[in-house]
């Protein structure tokens, strides 16, 4: 760790929370240079849905590199690029009756978001984009502009205009699916009021489940209504499925159960399968209006990632077996989290999320952070999220087996117990 | 190519100019699916300074992946990350008496630029960034804001504020090193005039050689004076060495001969050695003021790229042999380009650039594009640049041998001859 | 009217709705060149609270001009300026225990708003200003930025950033004073959520009664809570009392009953008494932080207006008699409007506003416009407001006597009857 | 003065430089409350081209007010408004073969500028406006956005985007009319370079003589070429003649000798004749595209100002006598200023301006301010301008007689002598 501290910028973050040097990794475990192993409930912030160093993909990647197949190709045509395009259409889009053009916008989540925002503004000729409270879309200025977190926004050092934030489903703990408050009533009222200051937006950008924002899952009815409002008002709907997509919620896209029909879909993180940088933007054919090169970037042709991505689709998405397992284990996770919460009735908390993207919001200052620290001490890697880091969240690899899942949850339970114990004085006050 | 046309977005560009499917690649050659080989004078837009699939790096990457070493690690500490940090300091920074903290800002050029802009604004508390005519810094909104190209800027679909463009060295063909016009006189006059509208900038961002902007190379005296002006006015100097760095001009950084001392340096493209996405931002220690996680991103830990990057440093930069070869071959390129230009005295033209980043500006509409088309027909891959695509440019791998270089230049010469022939009617008018 | 049509820009508006040429005016009547007289329920859009050509002020103005006293003085000290400053302090501020510095920001409403926005941003070092749905603050870009009306906003031709709109009291017809919905719950939730996208605002700008926005009157409890929220979050509170101030609601400031304590207060329109351009910005001493000349303008010294303004204060505000009359007549107006509304039970409507700033919202397309047309035909000048021009509003001079008031209201009633008659087909559908 | 200090905001400026209370005024003299008289070489910052309290206008204004003619009329048709429209067309526009629609945009200079900027953006659908170094156009955010002065710009407290500043004629002391440097070469190069960062501007806004910016007068050839560039590139040309118009330079419009044909012309200050707030925007008929009310404002119908404005046109502009006198006296001013400058050869200085808008730039720190202080002590009111307040400027009423002019210039000469004396130590260093 000396080298990191000496040479790396102060901006580094995870190496502070997990202050060891990692060396090896396999499926849901990590090993540090001292030989300690850790269960990974973080999965590269959702970039490792298929676990670390999956054997099937690894074999394909090694074979590809070994054979001197082209590695870096900008956006030139390559065999690996073609294979991915074909597989994605055949395995993902066609069975879902989805028709989209595929854009390679640069290999990161923020880049696919930037490309979708640009295109939505271009095809509408309008400027304002509607985003939601607690949204997180990326760190480059376009994506940061639609990100709610104030700490991140201030990092821009300049104003981030042409965005209007509206309340996400579940704002202030009130949920549309419980009939408590439909935040879309507010959005629709603003759209219908010619003096609301909102104007006619170009686009709405939404995460079906907000990861960084605190594992907030919108209801399917809310997503469906949002889609209908967008259609009624000729607003482009962008779904940012960078973290929640690629199976994390138990379906390939996180919005499938809502039956919606977005104009643009942003995918990154696990799309590359093996953790190598890759991103795509799905564009409805009628909006595929960029001029050649209007949005470009050097690393649009990371062929080893295409190879792994294609292998991931072939291995896991030809049928529903894999996704079904995720949904079933997801229910198990919910059950366990609710039990953990119930064990500490004096801690104001709620269980949030869907599938393999769940967490417990712990409304005691510093408690969620303490849980992750205690977990790390016990060999479990997990993180917090939410504007006040108030959610202890789980993003395990989808390839985790039942044994690993239970082991991880057991550790999490112990960590929560220990953290609650250490915060006893505060909790007294809260309860 | 059918698959590409059918499934990929209209934004694709290079697959239009080079309409074949590439499969294999080695050093400076590419092979398509029909077995045709091409000499590569484009080198992944400067991301492949060490050629395709370099054997030394390949061995290291394969060994790393084979051994189930960690692939994707966010910004956690890993062995591969540490090795890169150590090697970069030892091999690059220390011998040049440079002291910088290293930031991993996300694995693309636009991302390192965004991080430097944010940090310059943060440490100064100011907003305006000065950029130069013909600058190109990236496609996400922060980097696009300091990019001059109007076609790209319009893609933003919104205003890109807080930037002032000033003339780059050589504007309108007048060069400071020939005593013709020092564009920095203008910049300094604006800074010294409290009513110029410029205000007190946070930063200047500059490419020592502008690649996309038309292979414009600033003189060393101009760069030195720019650095002095920045220091005198407490303005942070950001050097974007994404394309011109990593040896392309014959030194590791493209500004070494100027003896300047930037506050931030942006590197990407060839820093990863093997064409895998990677970027770093070098930050003077006194400005290393990001809070942890203030700028982040998923793919800050692309470990196979770290492995290749380290191998590249070890292989090519332990001594000056490699760089010296680049400088010598660079002079040969200049000589050949000047001869080509001289062959067509009725074509208004000039030879531009430095080292392995050179080109001929051809001031006849469509002529440069015709050159690249003719070159491709003859088995040479090269591209145009400049605001009107008026420069036929060369970015060969630095690992190219003399034979390959001559073969490529011979083809280029034939391509130019053919293109001039085909544009004879226009050229008559121009001359 | 030929001259107007031939020479004046298409931007003219009121000369379209009232297509006669006005010549003479006295108190609440206007006379056109054909000798027709009109009752004025518009009062120069609230700039003529003391009626047209008030005799006391007229005498003072004539005497001032006759005596070659200085007319135009920029912001130099003059006798007339001093007299106004003294009178305003003595008659308005001191009796209300208010301590404010007085700024002359240029002689229009938009100018006082711009000055307050600038100063709020300066003293906080922050940028975002919170404004409300249906707000109207002016047409220059700073004031337009905090104006909700989309038709007006689009006129800017550029983005109007650094503003967040939140719902005004009574949004969607739900009122806080009836316990239906407190829109400030929403505002407070956004402030307390570090990822709401709102950040820490510099200021809130609010009209206690929204005139152009549709005669929406906030409850006193809502205003009080707004003030408290601002204080709790260190946000500057700007009250725009340009239209509702100077007695229009029955107290000099429209917010007096709320017991609030704004940091800045914007006054214009009737502050000049006689309809001559004038504006002031009241600034709490601790925020009086402009440098000399930091906001300036040529017409900050319109001395005839100062003379009339002083006379108005002397004549009408030495005791409560005048204001009491406004409050009493205001109740009469409410009563009459409610009766009118009740006469047409099949027209969805509501009576809005306070004092001499009231109206009927008529939720039938085009009906309110028809009312004003019918009123004009019958010799009554009144206007619509609201985002869809859906409110037939009254802004009579406060100096109107009971007879004039009743006569005007009688005409309005007839006009409403006639308009409802003409819209019978639509109303059938609505009811 | 106690009252001013006690009650008025710290933003006040001229009452600091001229710390007396003014009471009476006639033509070119002011009288304070102690009976001291002053020669006025400031003329309300150019709003009193016809002097203080002109008898002909005064009679008309008194008669108008006395007769209870309508004072405040928003933008309704009135007799006074019609008379002005007719007179302006007949006396000003038609004899010059100019065809413009007249807009009343609110009664201040900043308001006419805002209206022209809006309209230029609307009719082009573009955003960027080109302004010039040292430009001054007003204090509201739209006009401030095209103002160069950094102290004023910072007052906005937010970014002022969508503007590009280019060098005005005479930047760095080099003048196009002396063949030294044509700054429009730079502008044209930026327009013709698709990567200059400038894009396609909506408009250029220019003052033919920059008042606040330092009494910089563009050459007629430069203005003519600017007009041609705008036409060639389909850019709207806005002339801000707020200070230099209404005869100040010896013709009604300051650009008449250039033979240009602006799309929009902004007039305020002296257009109202008597110093009462008024402004108009002249709009070429083909660009008269505002929707009714798209830009509005309360004080668009200041009828006493219309009456005085009409009287001013009738009195002074029916023939060339008045203007000719201005031009002749202007030459006398130039002669005297040059003599004054020549008296102090060790003071780096230059005489600037045209007609009754001239000054001496004194390149010694604080010297110009000292001149105005010494002048005030001797009974002459004059001001400085320029980014560093380095120009001692004269803006006398155009109605000044030869005696008054000479008396004023004599005092100025004495003041300069005294100021130079007091700065002897600095001047030694400078020379």
Textual characterization of the structure:
The structure is a homotetramer of 431-residue chains. By secondary structure, chain A is of the alpha/beta class. In chain A, 39% of the residues lie in helices and 15% in strands. Chain A has helices at 2-7, 14-17, 43-46, 55-66, 79-93, 109-124, 141-145, 150-154, 183-192, 220-232, 303-316, 321-343, 367-377, 402-422, 424-430; strands at residues 22-26, 29-32, 37-40, 101-103, 129-132, 163-166, 203-206, 209-210, 216-217, 236-240, 264-267, 280-283, 349-354, 357-362, 380-381, 383-385, 391-394. In chain A, the strands form four sheets. Chain A has a seven-stranded mixed beta sheet. In chain A, helix 12 packs parallel to helix 14 and helix 13 (367-377) crosses helix 14. Chain A is globular. In chain A, 64% of the residues are buried. Chains in contact: A-B, A-C, B-D, C-D. At the A-B interface, helix 1, helix 2, strand 1, helix 3 and helix 4 of A face helix 1, helix 2, strand 1, helix 3 and helix 4 of B.
What's the average pLDDT of chain A? 96
Alpha-carbon distance between the two ends of chain A? 40 Å
CATH first level of the largest domain in chain A: which class?
A: Alpha Beta
Q: Count of DSSP E strands of chain A? A: 17
Radius of gyration of chain A, Cα only, in angstroms?
Answer: 21 Å
Oligomer: homotetramer
Principal-axis shape of chain A equals globular
Q: Helical element count of chain A?
A: 15
> Class by helix and strand content of chain A?
alpha/beta
CATH superfamily of the largest domain in chain A: Type I PLP-dependent aspartate aminotransferase-like (Major domain)
Please state how the strands of the largest beta sheet of chain A are arranged side by side. 4-12-11-10-7-5-6
